[in-house]
Amino acid sequence: xxxxxxxxxxxxxxxxxxxxxxxxxxxxxxxxxxxxxxxxxxxxxxxxxxxxxxxxxxxxxxxxxxxxxxxxxxxxxxxxxxxxxxxxxxxxxxxxxxxxxxxxxxxxxxxxxxxxxxxxxxxxxxxxxxxxxxxxxxxxxxxxxxxxxxxxxxxxxxxxxxxxxxxxxxxxxxxxxxxxxxxxxxxxxxxxxxxxxxxxxxxxxxxxxxxxxxxxxxxxxxxxxxxxxxxxxxxxxxxxxxxxxxxxxxxxxxxxxxxxxxxxxxxxxxxxxxxxxxxxxxxxxxxxxxxxxx
Length: 294
Hints:
By secondary structure, the chain is of the alpha/beta class. The protein folds into 2 domains: 2-162 and 197-225, Rossmann fold (3-Layer(aba) Sandwich); 166-196 and 227-266 and 283-290, UDP-galactose 4-epimerase, domain 1 (Alpha-Beta Complex), CATH 3.90.25. It has helices at residues 11-22, 34-43, 55-63, 80-101, 135-146, 170-182, 200-213, 230-241, 257-260, 269-275, 284-287, and strands at 2-6, 26-31, 46-49, 67-70, 107-113, 153-159, 162-164, 185-187, 194-199, 218-221, 225-229, 245-247. Strands 3-2-1-4-5-6-10 form a 7-stranded parallel beta sheet, sandwiched between helices. Strands 7-9-11 form a 3-stranded mixed beta sheet. Helix 3 packs parallel to helix 4 (80-101) and helix 4 packs parallel to helix 5 (135-146). It is globular, with a radius of gyration of 18 Å.
């Protein structure tokens, strides 16, 4: 099928583009810069220039496609205001994409986060949070899934806290970035809180499976590691960078500090059984061993 994708040049998106192309699909990708456009075309995708705020461009791309994969997000966590602006921009973009597909029975696959449930690993049956710093993303995804009642084969792939490849990406990547800047590999709380994780190449396979096969209105978990202790993650980062490992205040991590401190393991048992998805690439702690000092 012809797939319109946003965020196709990012860590996850570039893997999804390659997975789609390698499995017989064609890709039309949104590109907001010359560098993104060059990377996408180099991978074999066609491109259309624009960003998430260009709603007419999004509608045109969706209208041309047999299915849509939405991955783009501003990823600006520098302040509560910047985060809120990114959430609002994404919500408007996802609504525009969904409205274009109403009545067509075409797939709309969007990205979400795995929820956190006190005392146990979350499952695909648990609702995503709709309050807190990123609650707006949850509300946007729920609205997209509700389009199943209006003739859209909408589905959400819930991503864990860290999507990684070659030692970078996600929350673990932010820990590495901060450790390089501060000279300390820090973790909030006592470090026993757990973060789920998945390799980007394994996540890409799940996006394709959901695009091709998932029923309307469903949610799926792209989780390989159910929960790595944050202190263990920080320990590997500290050893690879040659910096001390220690507890640091939640405020170190800005407006998402409280999320960093939360225990949030997650299961993908239903996803694996229902869609036949089997992660095959290195775990997070194995992949972090590829971090280069300096």
